[in-house]
Amino acid sequence: MAIIRNWENDLEKYENFLKNINVAKYSQLRRIKTVEQDLPKDLLPLELYYHYYWDTMDFKDYDEIFAIYWREKLSPYVYEFIKKYFYGCSLQFVEEGFKARLYRIWMSILTQFHFQYLWNALFEEKLNSSAELDKKGIDAIVKISGKKLLFKLKRFLIAERHLTGGLRKLNKNMLI
After folding, report:
1. Burial (CB count within 10 angstroms: exposed 0-12, middle 13-18, buried 19+), residue 109
2. 53 touches 113 (CB < 8 A)
3. How confident is the model at residue 162 (pLDDT cuts 50, 70, 90)?
4. What does DSSP assign to residue 143?
5. What gap in Å lies between CA 159 and CA 166, rounded to an integer?
6. Average pLDDT of the chain, as a whole number
7. Cα–Cα distance list, 105 to 62, 66, 165 (Å)
8. Which of the residue ranges 66-70, 138-142, 144-148, 167-171 would you say has the lowest mean pLDDT?
9. pTM metric for this prediction
Protein backbone atom coordinates (compact mmCIF):
# COMPACT_ATOMS: atom_id res chain seq x y z
CA MET A 1 0.00 0.00 0.00
CA ALA A 2 1.39 3.37 -1.00
CA ILE A 3 1.96 5.99 1.65
CA ILE A 4 -0.15 9.10 1.13
CA ARG A 5 1.93 12.19 1.66
CA ASN A 6 0.80 15.65 2.63
CA TRP A 7 2.75 17.53 -0.03
CA GLU A 8 1.96 20.97 1.37
CA ASN A 9 3.50 19.98 4.71
CA ASP A 10 6.41 18.27 2.96
CA LEU A 11 7.08 21.41 0.91
CA GLU A 12 7.04 23.56 4.03
CA LYS A 13 9.49 21.23 5.83
CA TYR A 14 11.75 21.12 2.78
CA GLU A 15 11.77 24.89 2.35
CA ASN A 16 12.62 25.30 6.05
CA PHE A 17 15.52 22.91 5.55
CA LEU A 18 16.69 24.88 2.50
CA LYS A 19 16.52 28.18 4.40
CA ASN A 20 18.88 26.79 7.03
CA ILE A 21 21.63 25.64 4.66
CA ASN A 22 24.76 27.65 5.38
CA VAL A 23 25.93 28.12 1.78
CA ALA A 24 28.85 30.31 2.88
CA LYS A 25 30.22 27.37 4.88
CA TYR A 26 30.81 25.48 1.64
CA SER A 27 31.84 28.34 -0.64
CA GLN A 28 35.43 27.07 -0.90
CA LEU A 29 34.14 23.83 -2.47
CA ARG A 30 32.92 25.69 -5.55
CA ARG A 31 36.51 26.46 -6.55
CA ILE A 32 37.85 22.89 -6.28
CA LYS A 33 37.69 21.10 -9.63
CA THR A 34 39.92 18.04 -9.20
CA VAL A 35 37.24 15.36 -9.64
CA GLU A 36 35.53 16.33 -12.88
CA GLN A 37 35.39 12.95 -14.61
CA ASP A 38 32.03 11.33 -15.22
CA LEU A 39 31.49 9.28 -12.10
CA PRO A 40 30.78 5.59 -12.53
CA LYS A 41 27.26 4.60 -11.44
CA ASP A 42 28.67 2.94 -8.32
CA LEU A 43 30.07 6.30 -7.20
CA LEU A 44 27.00 8.43 -7.86
CA PRO A 45 25.37 9.68 -4.65
CA LEU A 46 21.85 9.54 -6.06
CA GLU A 47 20.55 6.74 -3.80
CA LEU A 48 21.66 8.68 -0.72
CA TYR A 49 20.22 11.95 -1.93
CA TYR A 50 16.86 10.41 -2.83
CA HIS A 51 16.73 8.50 0.44
CA TYR A 52 17.38 11.48 2.71
CA TYR A 53 15.77 14.34 0.79
CA TRP A 54 12.89 12.72 -1.10
CA ASP A 55 11.85 9.35 0.31
CA THR A 56 12.28 9.77 4.08
CA MET A 57 12.71 13.55 4.46
CA ASP A 58 15.42 12.87 7.05
CA PHE A 59 17.24 15.99 5.88
CA LYS A 60 20.99 15.97 6.55
CA ASP A 61 23.39 18.84 6.21
CA TYR A 62 26.08 18.43 3.60
CA ASP A 63 28.82 17.37 6.01
CA GLU A 64 26.63 14.55 7.35
CA ILE A 65 25.60 13.33 3.91
CA PHE A 66 29.17 13.41 2.61
CA ALA A 67 30.42 11.44 5.66
CA ILE A 68 27.79 8.76 4.98
CA TYR A 69 28.73 8.69 1.29
CA TRP A 70 32.47 8.46 1.99
CA ARG A 71 31.98 5.62 4.50
CA GLU A 72 29.81 3.64 2.08
CA LYS A 73 31.77 4.23 -1.12
CA LEU A 74 35.43 4.35 -0.03
CA SER A 75 36.06 0.64 -0.38
CA PRO A 76 36.15 -0.60 -3.06
CA TYR A 77 34.58 2.05 -5.31
CA VAL A 78 36.64 5.13 -4.47
CA TYR A 79 39.85 3.08 -4.30
CA GLU A 80 39.21 1.76 -7.82
CA PHE A 81 38.56 5.31 -9.03
CA ILE A 82 41.81 6.49 -7.42
CA LYS A 83 43.78 3.72 -9.15
CA LYS A 84 42.39 4.82 -12.50
CA TYR A 85 42.56 8.62 -12.22
CA PHE A 86 44.57 9.67 -9.16
CA TYR A 87 47.31 7.11 -8.69
CA GLY A 88 49.98 8.61 -6.44
CA CYS A 89 47.73 11.32 -4.99
CA SER A 90 46.93 11.44 -1.30
CA LEU A 91 43.59 10.17 -0.08
CA GLN A 92 42.98 13.62 1.47
CA PHE A 93 43.44 15.28 -1.95
CA VAL A 94 40.98 12.88 -3.57
CA GLU A 95 38.48 13.22 -0.71
CA GLU A 96 38.54 17.00 -1.04
CA GLY A 97 37.88 16.66 -4.79
CA PHE A 98 34.99 14.28 -4.19
CA LYS A 99 33.55 16.55 -1.50
CA ALA A 100 33.57 19.47 -3.94
CA ARG A 101 32.11 17.44 -6.82
CA LEU A 102 29.35 15.91 -4.72
CA TYR A 103 28.51 19.33 -3.28
CA ARG A 104 27.75 20.61 -6.78
CA ILE A 105 25.59 17.55 -7.44
CA TRP A 106 23.90 18.06 -4.05
CA MET A 107 23.01 21.67 -4.77
CA SER A 108 21.64 20.74 -8.18
CA ILE A 109 19.51 17.89 -6.89
CA LEU A 110 18.20 20.00 -4.00
CA THR A 111 16.97 22.47 -6.65
CA GLN A 112 15.36 19.60 -8.55
CA PHE A 113 13.67 18.30 -5.39
CA HIS A 114 12.39 21.78 -4.59
CA PHE A 115 10.64 21.90 -7.96
CA GLN A 116 9.20 18.44 -7.36
CA TYR A 117 7.92 19.25 -3.86
CA LEU A 118 6.35 22.44 -5.21
CA TRP A 119 4.74 20.63 -8.16
CA ASN A 120 3.29 17.93 -5.94
CA ALA A 121 1.94 20.52 -3.50
CA LEU A 122 0.24 22.46 -6.31
CA PHE A 123 -1.05 19.86 -8.75
CA GLU A 124 -3.26 16.82 -8.51
CA GLU A 125 -1.03 14.88 -10.92
CA LYS A 126 1.99 13.91 -8.82
CA LEU A 127 5.56 13.67 -10.03
CA ASN A 128 7.27 10.36 -9.41
CA SER A 129 11.03 10.16 -9.23
CA SER A 130 13.76 7.85 -8.03
CA ALA A 131 17.48 7.33 -8.15
CA GLU A 132 16.95 4.61 -10.77
CA LEU A 133 15.09 7.00 -13.07
CA ASP A 134 17.66 9.74 -12.46
CA LYS A 135 20.49 7.41 -13.52
CA LYS A 136 18.62 6.98 -16.81
CA GLY A 137 18.47 10.75 -17.29
CA ILE A 138 14.85 11.12 -16.16
CA ASP A 139 14.31 13.44 -13.22
CA ALA A 140 10.58 12.82 -12.86
CA ILE A 141 7.54 11.26 -14.53
CA VAL A 142 3.98 12.48 -14.34
CA LYS A 143 0.86 10.98 -15.89
CA ILE A 144 -1.56 13.55 -17.31
CA SER A 145 -4.65 12.63 -19.33
CA GLY A 146 -3.37 9.09 -19.75
CA LYS A 147 0.00 10.22 -21.14
CA LYS A 148 3.33 9.92 -19.36
CA LEU A 149 5.47 13.04 -19.40
CA LEU A 150 9.16 12.70 -18.61
CA PHE A 151 11.01 15.61 -17.01
CA LYS A 152 14.66 16.55 -17.26
CA LEU A 153 15.16 19.64 -15.15
CA LYS A 154 17.88 22.14 -15.93
CA ARG A 155 18.57 25.40 -14.28
CA PHE A 156 19.85 28.42 -16.09
CA LEU A 157 22.20 30.79 -14.34
CA ILE A 158 22.98 34.17 -15.77
CA ALA A 159 25.89 35.95 -14.15
CA GLU A 160 25.34 39.62 -13.42
CA ARG A 161 28.24 40.62 -15.66
CA HIS A 162 26.44 39.03 -18.62
CA LEU A 163 23.15 40.83 -18.10
CA THR A 164 24.00 43.79 -20.30
CA GLY A 165 25.02 42.66 -23.77
CA GLY A 166 25.00 38.93 -23.06
CA LEU A 167 21.31 38.81 -22.23
CA ARG A 168 20.33 40.02 -25.71
CA LYS A 169 22.52 37.32 -27.23
CA LEU A 170 21.01 34.69 -24.90
CA ASN A 171 17.46 35.71 -25.80
CA LYS A 172 18.19 35.41 -29.54
CA ASN A 173 19.45 31.86 -29.04
CA MET A 174 16.63 30.64 -26.80
CA LEU A 175 13.91 28.45 -28.20
CA ILE A 176 10.50 29.16 -26.75
Report:
1. buried
2. yes
3. very low
4. E
5. 9
6. 88
7. 11, 11, 30
8. 167-171
9. 0.83
